[in-house]
Every structure is written in structure tokens, then in C-alpha cells.
Amino acid sequence: MRELRADVLVVGGGLGGVAAALAALRAGRTVLLTEEYAWLGGQLTSQAVPPDEHSWVERFGVTASYRALRDGIRDYYRAYYPLTDRARRTRDLNPGAGHVSRLCHEPRVAVAVIDAMLAPYRGSGRLTVLQPAVPIAAETDGDRVTAVTVRHHGDDLVLSAPYILDATETGDLLPMTGTEYVTGAESQAETGEPNAPGTANPANMQALSVCFAVDHVDGDHTIDKPSAYGFWREYQPDFWGARMLSWQTPNPRTLQLSTRSFTPNPDDDPWLVDADQRVNPGDGNLWTFRRIAARRNFTGGLYPSDICLVNWPMIDYFEQPYVDGPPPAEVERNARELSFSVLYWLQTEAPRPDGGTGWPGLRLRGDITGSADGLAMAPYVREGRRIRAEYTVVEQDLSLQVRGDKGAVPYSDAVGVGMYRIDLHPSTGGDNYIDVASCPFEIPLGALIPQRMENLLPAGKNIGTTHITNGSYRLHPVEWNAGEVAGALAAFCLDRAVTPRAVRNTPGLLADFQAHLSADGVELHWPDVSGY
After folding, report:
1. Neighbours of 449 (CB within 10 A)
2. Where along the sequence do coiled-coil regions lie (predicted)?
């Protein structure tokens, strides 16, 4: 088999993987980067999820490279899209005027910007990107990973590097390498978390979602009736309070049944959208909630309709776990059938405000999501495998109810910051939402250090969190921050001929590494702000 080698191997090209690769490359190292799907960027691109971010993102609370990504997306719109003068002039352009984030945009724009950020390193030969490539096996020698085999265009390639970073969406390298990991919900006896269950359930994981984009135009764009539509049309989980295919859903924060609205192309003013999660979660009108193109931001009638990204409660698939359960392809297939059923319901039976039913003018925009079947290219994976780490972040580290005005626990080994409510979607164990106010928190280096393995590092959602705290640490800027730190740590260890464990546990090395991160634009601590 063909063999390739670099200083750092990053398996998985989602947000964490891209950030890890960039950090190692900036440090002068060579990198092999693999990705399963046609687009780099993971949840931001192939999974089609607009960025979930905190309220201060425009001023602080993200790394400099993540800010460069956000700025690049806005600059791309200014360079290539026919924006209105007002949209072009605004510093904090929100192309979709969605309520979930101050930067809602089409996935392809992020793909273009990520590719541009990596382009100089590909041109120089320091970065090799293998796409599509799926890890299928790994070799180890004691507490070290020596090689990972990936399948790339039908061929098996053996990839090796002194440092191996697992940036896959579900922590695929952990079982392959024998790295100790956990899945699902830990018990309260193990973690002490107020919202942990009495008994651990490794199969209890957050819902999987297959997102999709739609617009609303003239004509009948109704899809063929999905084969499982009859099942999903009548499906009502015990805890839901209504059929899933309805406008009634539990309020994530109160669990009271609430009624959502849906008004295609409401002709609202994009400048009146205040995407601030402290004030309003923004999910009242599902059309504008995650809108990724607001037609009034563009000139000349270029967009006949807004484009709405569907990542709503009714597409959450929690019948089967995606990890360490049934074949993942089966789970994804069933989740896709649910998403198609939701779309068909919207087109044919969903109650309209005027008393009618269905919007046949809703048009599936697979060209926006880059997929063959019209849905997102990849499923949105909220929760996968997590390493058993030197330090595991628990709920009482950041819960606003527990910590109050003391703020989140400060870590002496802080290597980044993040902020998001502890936001758990309904899970495969039959749990309803768990939505807990959080304090702005730090990322401890100990959460990136496996208990035993020496040269394998997590670089995404697989860091040392629990089922509960994964709900805060899984979002876009935190995944990027974790990946960036993993890439920087691998390069730092190569430069100093030390191990990641030594960096964390040697005060002088830790101080040097934290100084390196700060100089590279990684914020280690928050200013004085309050949680929500």
C-alpha cells in the first residue's frame, strides 16, 4: 500500500480539523489532512449548520483565526455578491439575517473561504489534503499510534506522523487505536452533575439531524411521498406533547408545549434582526430562525426568495444512537427519511396561517447544500465519542445556577474560551431537552490530554467533556478553538521534543505554550461578562 508521512496527521476536515491543520502549518510543520466529504468545514458546510455563537462574538471570545474565517466570509460576499449599498457598507454583515447568529450564510461561501485559507500551504507542498478519505484501521505501539489507514478513491493509504489528531465527527480513531473513551450519559455518581441521570447510559446520545435548505417560489415543487411518511406523520414521543410533524414543540428552556410559526418570505427588514441569544433564542418564526439568504440584502431581484435552512426540532432523529450502535449508514438513512418526511409535510399538510394546508412552492435547494439527494451532504452530529481525559469538564464547572456571579471555574491550564448554554437536544435514551444557563467558560488543556495515549490528540467535539457539558462545547467556535490548540500543541511538542502530557504538567512548559497561544491570537480568559 502507498504510504504518506508528515509532521502532523489530522484525520477529519471539519472545523476542528481545519483549525488544527492551520495552527500546525503556521508553526512551520507539514500536515496531512483527510476528510470524508467533498467539502471541508464540517458542521459549517457539509452539515449545513449556520454558526451557533455567543452574544459577544463580534468583539471578543473567539480566536484570531476563527475571526479571520468570519471576516473572510463577509469579505467574500462583498467581493462577489450583488449586495445592496447598505448591506455592503455594514461591518457586521449578516447575509441571511437569521436570528440564530450574527453571521448566517450559504455553506459554499464558507467552503471557498476555508479553501482560500489553506491554499498557500497546499501550493507550497506543506499541506496534503486527501478527500474523500475515510479512516478504516490504525496501528499502535504501546501508548502511541504509529499509523492510520484511510480509504481514498478505492485505494488504501497508510498515513503516519509523530502526532495524530482525531478531528472526526464521532471520534472514529478512538476505538481503532484502543484509546479510552466514553459515549452517552455518565451517571450522577460519576460526575456529580445536577442534570446527570442516576444510572449511566452509554447509548443515550443527542439527536442526529439531517438539515436541508428550501426557498419558496412559484410552481409545485412537492417531492415524492417518502416511504416512511405514514410513520413519521403519526409519530409522537411520550415527552413531546404533540405529534412531531406539527408546529407544537417543547420549549427547550421550560419544556412547556409552545407553538412555532412559519411564514415563508415575510418581507421583513434584515436590519431589524437582532441575533442575540441573551435577548431571544430567535426560533419563534422558523423561516427566519436559520435563514441563510435574505433576499432584501441583494440587488436586482437576484434572489426570488429567501433561503431557509431547516434545522428545527421536528428533524431531530433520536430513535437510534449514531455511535457504537446500529450501522451508522442505517441510522443516517432513517434520519434522512425523517427529514424528507418533514419537507413533504411542509409542502402538503402543514397548517398555514390562512387556514389552508401546505406550501407546494417550497423548493428543496440541494444545490445550496451540495448533495445528491437534496439534503445536507452530511448529517449534523451533535455528540459522539469523547476521550477519557486528564481533566473532564463537568456541569458544575460552568452552570450559571451552580456558579452564579463567581463565573465559570477558572483553569490554570486554560487554552481558550467559549460560551453557549448547556443545550442538549432530545436523546436516544428518551430524554427531553436539557437547556441550562451557562457562564462564559474556559477550555482546559487537560481536556485535550488522553489519560494514556501519548501522541493522539482530540481536535473537535471529542475532547474531555461529559454528555451534559458537550452541549456547550460542541458549537462552532469552541470546536475550532479545540482543534487550533491541538494543532498548535503538536507543533510545540515537536519543537521542544516533549509530550503533550509534559506540557500540561510542567509549569514552565505550560506557561510557554500559553504565551505562544496568546501571541497567535487565542484568548485564554474572558473579560468580566455575565452568563445567560
Report:
1. 27
2. none
CB-based contact 470:383 (threshold 8 Å): yes
Question: Which residue in the block uniquely carries the three cell numbers 433561503?
Answer: 307
Per-residue pLDDT tens digits for 447-504: 999 999 999 999 999 999 999 999 999 999 999 999 999 999 999 999 999 999 999 9
CA distances from 407 to 282, 396, 398, 522, 526 (A): 25, 11, 7, 20, 10
The predicted-structure confidence for 331-385, as pLDDT tens digits, reads as follows 999 999 999 999 999 999 999 999 999 999 999 999 999 999 999 999 999 999 9
Residue 213 pairs with which residues in a beta bridge?
A: 309
Torsion over CA: 225, 219, 296, 93 (sign)? positive
Distance CA 95, CA 268 (A): 14
Residue type, 463: I
Q: Which of 430, 434, 81 is nearest to 237 (CA)?
A: 430
φ/ψ of 255, rounded to 5, equals: 65, 5
* Strand pairing category for 2-5 and 155-160: parallel
d(CA 520, CA 117): 16
Q: Which residues contact 211 (CB under 8 A, 6 or more apart)?
A: 47, 48, 49, 309, 310, 311, 315, 339, 369, 375, 376, 380
Q: Is the peptide bond before 477 cis (omega within 30 degrees of 0)?
A: no
CB contact at 8 A, 463 and 472 = no
For helices 107-124 and 15-26, give the axis angle rounded to 10 degrees. 30
| Non-local CB neighbours of 356 within 8 Å, separated by 6+ positions | none
Strand pairing category for 362-364 and 422-424: unpaired
Cβ-Cβ contacts under 8 Å for 128 (sequence gap 6 or more): 4, 6, 31, 32, 33, 122
Pairing of strands 212-216, 133-141: unpaired
Please tell me whether the overall predicted TM-score, pTM, comes out greater than 0.85 for this model: yes
DSSP letter (8 states) at residue 222:
P
